[in-house]
Specification:
alpha+beta, 8-stranded mixed β-sheet
Length: about 250
């Protein structure tokens, strides 16, 4: 993370990958405290598939730590909560000229996180060999993304949500001819956002709120395709935090 970036604590709003509740019911009503346009966008050459693969491998080799690991990583804040392992797939679709991030919008009738934007993913099953297996299985179950359309190229460090879900983001390339079959109970739609948009902090908003007597912040990355309503897809919470960690990795000096 660039040294002039102020601290951020988004996990108070983000709850879990698949379950739990936080203090925020409608994040779009939380005031915007600032934007991060003063930070540089990731250069285009670093957003190519080969560059991403290399950067992820280097980060794993040197034990790179992200700027945001989630409030759930602090057991002093939420004592007594048992950690649950989970994984999400960060699917990067190989479109001509640039990569796109495949995201989902959860259905409005769900008890937890109704209508929120998320990566495909969920908690680890006993039969999963590792985080990669969890992410691929969940992506297939939720959106019907076939394993043969996916090439895993690395992982980001774990992000621990406020409900103590320890989430491993598994980064993968996806063939542009992929097909989906959505689980209509959980997933209302799947959509793509250009990776360069998300890797430009000019599109990152900081929201500020008070909880438990403490002022906290979380990130959002509102996006509307084709110049439409920029709040059509309100990317925030844990999803935005993991994307910000990817930004920090790709923007960091070698």
């Amino acid at each position: 993370m660039p040294p002039d970036e102020p601290p951020l604590t988004p996990a108070s709003s983000a709850t879990s990958a698949r379950g739990g509740r936080g203090p925020i019911r409608d994040p779009q009503l939380i005031p915007v405290a600032g934007h991060d346009g003063h930070l540089p966008a990731v250069p285009a050459e670093r957003l190519r598939a080969d560059a991403l693969r290399e950067r992820l491998a280097q980060a794993a080799a040197r034990g790179w730590r992200p700027p945001l690991d989630g409030d759930g990583a602090r057991p002093d804040l939420f004592p007594g909560r048992t950690a649950t392992t989970a994984a999400v797939l960060v699917p990067l679709v190989q479109r001509p000229g640039e990569l796109h991030v495949l995201l989902t919008r959860r259905t409005d009738h769900l008890h937890d996180h109704a209508g929120q934007i998320s990566f495909p993913g969920g908690r680890t099953d006993a039969t999963d060999a590792d985080a990669v297996a969890t992410a691929l299985r969940e992506a297939h179950e939720e959106v019907g993304l076939a394993g043969e359309a996916v090439e895993v190229i690395g992982r980001l460090p774990d992000y621990t949500t406020v409900t103590r879900f320890v989430v491993t983001p598994v980064v993968a390339l996806v063939r542009p001819d992929y097909t989906l079959r959505l689980d209509s109970f959980e997933v209302a739609e799947a959509f793509e956002v250009p990776l360069p948009f998300l890797m430009n902090p000019a599109h990152h908003q900081r929201h500020e709120f008070s909880f438990g007597g403490v002022t906290r912040q979380f990130l959002s990355m509102p996006w509307g395709p084709g110049g439409g309503d920029p709040h059509r897809y309100f990317i925030w919470g844990a999803t935005a935090a993991m994307l910000r960690n990817l930004y920090a990795l790709l923007a960091a000096d070698d």
